[in-house]
Design a protein that fits this description.
This protein is α/β, with parallel strands linked by helices. Helices cover about 35% and strands about 25% of the residues. The strands form five sheets. An eight-stranded mixed beta sheet has the order 5-15-21-20-19-18-17-16. A seven-stranded parallel beta sheet has the order 3-2-1-4-6-7-12, with helices on both faces. Helix 1 crosses helix 6, helix 5 crosses helix 8 and helix 11 crosses helix 13. It is globular and about 70 Å long. It starts with a strand and ends with a helix.
């Protein structure tokens, strides 16, 4: 029995992939979800897993030999999320690789995004590349399937398209709606994902997954409209800026801005499969576009869009900092606590005693935050400290601060996860939360100064 892990199993692609793989009698599946789910199949086990937690990812991976990574995070993962979706994506991918290395995973199959030949990529596309880079920099064999718009029910990009058609009889279309792309049917992507699991000849490479028809976004709107007998009058107005069109798309569709904005910014690029990365089995990608649309569009009323519901009053804050040459995460953590006392001058002090770090206000008896380093789970390239007390901290379950190296030691990520503040929520958001961002910005500048100083010494 071969055990497969699917990260992102609760999404529309994950569900379809599970249904396909369970048709094979020698496969056992572990599906990861951020919330509890019950299984209705003897060879499917659902595990609640927060991929921001290396421990969760590692615990879920026990006994698995192959893993699918279908994760892309653009919606908030906490009541207060400070940071960018691409930094969130990067930490989850880094956790996944670290866990996979611990359990000697043999193969990762990653479904990413089509990457156009451009130098000024949107952060949505850069994020897909960074996840690729994170997987491919490890010794684990990684197969990458890059796709543009996937035509399937309940997918975020397809949901946006469907709602535009249903809700607007007249559309003022900006220039990006004339950009060419190769939409691909969900069932074709599932065929390719399954084949990547079985066929060793195609593993460890990068492929572009384009459907059989090249079309503009306007052409796609017209084709989809014909399927549901709802035509829209399209008026192209090239002067509409991207910032306005993405706001308009979010307003009309009801899809959250944090999801719409990165997607729309990526639509200005031509998304066509490159010949040098062609999928070697074209019969897998042959579903006609009209047929794919017919299979995906429904006459049922469109349900309210819903994503992950964060836990009440928890905080995630992630900042990407430059890592000075010759330094590691352990040095960054030590430098951070040494630097803090200087930054706050006499107002707030930091006291280090063994593995315990205490922030206090004027007097050591007024403890603001107490952090305890985990010796067992800290390494030179990742330092982990649990938040264990202090006046500014409510009772914590898994609140923690970490410093970790990413992208071949190019950056270090400073991240707070699952922190629950003691201050009333409104006061916290407009005081402690803002101060934390100011502090991390200043510390980031401090690390940049180290980089500049090192370059001057080398010169």
């Amino acid at each position: 029995m071969r055990k497969i892990l699917i990260a992102g199993a609760s999404g529309f692609i994950g569900h379809a992939l599970i249904d396909k793989l369970l048709q094979e009698e020698d496969v056992e599946i572990v599906g990861l979800s951020r919330s509890h789910k019950d299984s209705h199949h003897p060879r499917l086990t659902w595990k609640k897993c927060d991929l921001f937690s290396l421990k969760d990812a590692s615990d879920a991976m026990v006994g698995c030999e192959t893993a699918y990574y279908l994760v892309h995070s653009m919606l908030p993962s906490a009541s207060l999320s400070q940071g960018t979706f691409y930094d969130f994506d990067l930490i989850m991918a880094d956790n996944f690789v670290r866990a996979a290395l611990r359990h000697n995973l043999s193969h990762i199959i990653y479904l990413g995004g089509m990457i156009p030949p451009a130098t000024d990529l949107s952060w949505h596309l850069k994020s897909r590349l960074e996840v690729e880079e994170t997987f491919k920099s490890s010794p684990i064999k990684t197969t990458v399937l890059r796709a543009g718009l996937i035509i399937g029910p309940h997918g975020s990009s397809f949901t946006i398209l469907e709602r535009l058609i249903r809700r607007l009889p007249i559309m003022i279309c900006p220039a990006w709606t004339k950009t060419l792309s190769q939409p691909v049917a969900l069932r074709d992507i599932i065929k390719a994902l399954e084949r990547a699991f079985h066929d060793e000849k195609i593993q460890g490479k990068v492929y572009d997954m384009g459907g059989p028809e090249i079309v503009t976004y306007q052409g796609l709107i017209q084709k989809a409209g014909r399927q549901i007998k709802k035509s829209s009058t399209l008026i192209t107005l090239n002067i509409i800026p991207l910032s306005l069109s993405r706001f308009w798309v979010s307003l009309v569709t009801g899809v959250p801005k944090k999801l719409v904005y990165p997607l729309v910014l990526s639509l200005r690029y031509q998304m066509l499969a490159a010949a040098e990365r062609a999928w070697p089995y074209p019969e897998d990608l042959n579903t006609p576009l009209d047929e794919a649309l017919q299979l995906s569009l429904h006459d049922d009323p469109i349900k309210k869009f819903s994503g992950h519901v964060p836990e009440e009053k928890d905080v995630r804050s992630i900042q990407r900092l430059v890592l000075p040459p010759g330094r590691n995460a352990e040095w960054v953590a030590t430098e951070y606590f040494d630097w803090l006392s200087t930054f706050f001058s006499t107002l707030i002090k930091v006291q280090l005693e063994g593995d315990r770090c205490t922030f206090y206000f004027f007097d050591p008896s007024i403890k603001l935050l107490i952090l305890q380093k985990s010796q067992e789970r800290s390494t030179p390239d990742r330092q982990l400290l649990y938040i264990v007390g202090g006046l500014l901290s409510a009772k914590q379950e898994r609140g923690r601060l970490e410093f970790r190296e990413v992208l071949d030691r190019k950056y270090v990520m400073a991240a707070i996860h699952e922190f629950r503040p003691a201050l009333p929520w409104f006061i916290y958001r407009w005081s402690q939360a803002i101060i934390h961002l100011i502090v991390m910005k200043a510390f980031g500048d401090h690390l940049k100064w180290h980089v500049i100083s090192n370059k001057k010494v080398l010169v």
